[in-house]
Amino acid sequence: MYNKTLLDKILVQSKNKEQDQESRRISFERYEKEEFPIWKRLKIDKSTLPDYQKYNNQKTLMYRQEGLRVTPIHSQEVIFSNELLDKEYGPSIKHRTLTEAFSNTGTYINVDEGIKVTEPIIIQLPLNKDNPLLLDHHVIHAMKDSRVVVVLDYRDENVDGFHNGVINIIVEEGADVQVIKLQNFSKRTTHIFSGLALVKRDGKVTFNSIDLGSTLAVTDFSTYLQEENSEGVVESIYLGDGKSKMDLSYNMYHEGRRSESNILVKGALLHEAHKVFRGNLFFRKGAKKASGSEQEYVILLNETVKSDSIPALMCQEDDVQGEHAASAGQVDENKLFYLMSRGLTEKEAKQLIIMASFTPVIDQIPIEGLQEMLETEISIRLSS
Questions:
Q1: 41 and 171 housed in the same domain
Q2: Domain span at residue 340?
Q3: Known InterPro entries for this protein (predicted)?
Q4: How far is residue 62 CA from its own chain's centroid?
């Protein structure tokens, strides 16, 4: 199905044949050699791919600004960069290279030196009956001292969908990039997401992941803090309900001196949902005086849910500081009692406590309409 014949057909239709062919073929060679993963903890031992088809439903909302270039992904030479191709990231090499080789949409964003993009770039990627397959590949290149916010908005029209997305982010010296991933697919869609960020001296990347939907939600985001004073932040929320399964992995690779990282994940599980969280801090040789923190807090609303948390810290350097914490439990009884004594029902009190936990991440979204939509959706899910 996803073979050389299909790849050749895609390349014939490419508008940028020479550059597109090289990067896609490199990824295809790796794709052929790899196997799909087995998610043992989630008890998923096979992966089924839908037939390939084109995707024609992407919408990019933005204000034109001098120094900002936004174009289709496969018209850009940046995707061959050895620095991107050589890094390991994603839930599996098989899934990542599938999209690198066969992507059916995507965006390249370049921000020139010193440019502060004043409004967020919103990339809407909905699935519907005519576009049930989404293999999107995005690249963001922020030059020295630039700033940009990008929102990836994933949702569907209750179709049997499949999404496998990839994003690559290059943050040059002193640049600041924020990526917000909103995932609100229906329970008929599979969602897999691979993210990679390379951060140079004094640069910063922030990744906000909001996972509310899909039958299987897999997110893996890896940040390489390559130079001095580079910074990586992950702030994520998730809500698992029904029989949904989630596998969330966030990795910080400290390579530069005085690099800093912070992973903060908050979630809630109800019904028969199952979640696996992995937070990994790597302190590599040369990352002296680096500091990293990872924390995950999940509220369990039913006895039938399952939560696995696997924080890890791996160190090759002495002069560093790392800490990790994870907790899973019921809603705080004291808070619950206080709110119910003020006239709220137990269900209303629990919803309020969870929303209060989620609000700091939702507030990161620079579009009020999206904030309100998420708050409404979360309230509906929690009241079910």
A1: yes
A2: 333-383
A3: Fe-S_cluster_assembly_SufBD, SUF_FeS_clus_asmbl_SufBD_core, SUF_FeS_clus_asmbl_SufBD_sf, SUF_FeS_clus_asmbl_SufD
A4: 21
